[in-house]
């Protein structure tokens, strides 16, 4: 007898180029799905929101079964106890660390960056205009958030190229990795990145500056400070998450606008719509496609019960296009969608993305100025995607202006 066909297979050819049809099929056929590879996947908006707001764990060490347990253990072994950011910790550790980091990563500090972000965007657009064409990812979508978070943290410019390369490897730890050699390379990149950041922290302790890293070193609440190890873990999280996700919003958002010329024209005619447009693009593009939890007890979702100690994927991208919540046009881009902000692109609950305000600001400034600056903006070739299941986005977006 032949093996049953997988209802959901993120490794099938073409999935990462356009995963949304697969998400739709899964949401319609089995919104609470137990995968043969040992994980559960939720795809309905209501179920995803409930899981994100629940008290279930984010600590993958509690998973007892599944195809990725060995991969997780090997990566943890390579890092030798490092890599425990607040993204991977439950209360009370998560509460304490997030409280200390949020003391310096404030909405007021982020809002004050708008003039600098605007200047960086305009400089990039000047270069694109002079050239007449460009790869939008290389010219704007990647360097903007990379430069902003590097400047915020006070990273030395001499380290940028190497840190960018290491970061690209480390984010693969959020993906199912195909072979032992890739796991080894991801682990080695993680070790090098953590050592690099550790050296930077030691330097900042001796010579503090007016930057986020110096403020994190000084941050204190009720006599509590971040230890060196905690500092390294949180800084690596802020650094990697600070640019590896927003590049997908800017690049993927631009592609969505160019493929929907009526919505591009709407934004040009109504620049005040830029704020809601970014929310709709976050919903439509889903720069982070998945989040995860580990059940701490049996968890009932609809008529299914997920056992304890199981890895559960919250399908953010699937939930963001759920017609039960967003209406029959959920698969369409609509920049004036009234409830666009109800997306789950930033996760939810206690682990809601700490950098959401920064991503929104960078996305709004970059996309609004891009489309208003170039009335003849158009694709100039084939868009190529980065091949990632989770942090999905375009690798190249050729444009001419």
UniProtKB/TrEMBL annotation:
This is Cytochrome P450. PROSITE patterns: CYTOCHROME_P450. It comes from Actinomadura gamaensis. Belongs to the cytochrome P450 family. InterPro entries: Cyt_P450, Cyt_P450_B, Cyt_P450_CS, Cyt_P450_sf. It comes from the Bacteria. CDD domains: CYP164-like. Keywords: Heme, Iron, Metal-binding, Monooxygenase, Oxidoreductase.
């Amino acid at each position: 007898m032949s093996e049953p066909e997988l209802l959901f297979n993120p490794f099938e050819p073409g999935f990462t180029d356009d995963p949304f049809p697969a998400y739709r099929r899964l949401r319609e056929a089995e919104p609470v799905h137990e995968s043969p590879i040992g994980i559960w996947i939720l795809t309905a908006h209501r179920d995803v929101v409930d899981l994100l707001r629940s008290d279930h764990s984010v600590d993958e060490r509690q998973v007892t079964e599944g195809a990725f347990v060995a991969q997780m253990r090997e990566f943890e072994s390579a890092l030798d106890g490092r890599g425990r950011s607040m993204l991977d910790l439950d209360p009370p550790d998560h509460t304490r660390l997030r409280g200390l980091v949020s003391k310096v990563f404030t909405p007021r500090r982020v809002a004050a960056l708008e003039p600098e972000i605007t200047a960086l965007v305009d400089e990039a657009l000047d270069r694109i205009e002079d050239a007449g064409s460009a790869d939008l990812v290389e010219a704007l979508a990647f360097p903007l958030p990379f430069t902003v978070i590097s400047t915020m943290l006070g990273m030395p410019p001499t380290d940028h190229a190497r840190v960018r390369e290491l970061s690209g490897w480390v984010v693969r730890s959020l993906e199912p990795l195909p072979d032992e050699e890739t796991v080894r390379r991801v682990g080695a990149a993680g070790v090098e990145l953590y050592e690099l950041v550790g050296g930077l922290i030691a330097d900042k302790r001796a010579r503090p500056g007016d930057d986020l890293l110096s403020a994190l070193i000084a941050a204190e609440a009720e006599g509590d400070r971040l230890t060196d190890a905690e500092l390294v873990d949180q800084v690596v999280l802020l650094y990697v998450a600070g640019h590896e996700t927003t590049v997908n919003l800017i690049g993927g958002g631009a592609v969505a606008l160019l493929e929907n010329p009526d919505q591009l024209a709407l934004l040009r005619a109504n620049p005040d719509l830029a704020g809601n447009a970014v929310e709709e693009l976050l919903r439509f593009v889903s720069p982070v496609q998945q989040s995860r939890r580990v059940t701490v007890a049996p968890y009932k979702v609809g008529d299914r019960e997920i056992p304890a100690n199981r890895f559960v994927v919250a399908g953010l991208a699937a939930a963001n296009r759920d017609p039960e919540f967003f209406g029959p046009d959920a698969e369409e881009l609509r920049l004036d969608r009234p409830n666009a902000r109800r997306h789950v692109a930033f996760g939810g609950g206690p682990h809601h993305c700490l950098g959401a305000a920064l991503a929104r600001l960078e996305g709004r400034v970059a996309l609004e100025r891009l489309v208003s600056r170039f009335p003849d903006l158009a694709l100039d070739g084939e868009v190529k995607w980065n091949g990632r299941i989770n942090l999905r986005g375009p690798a190249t977006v050729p444009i001419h202006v």
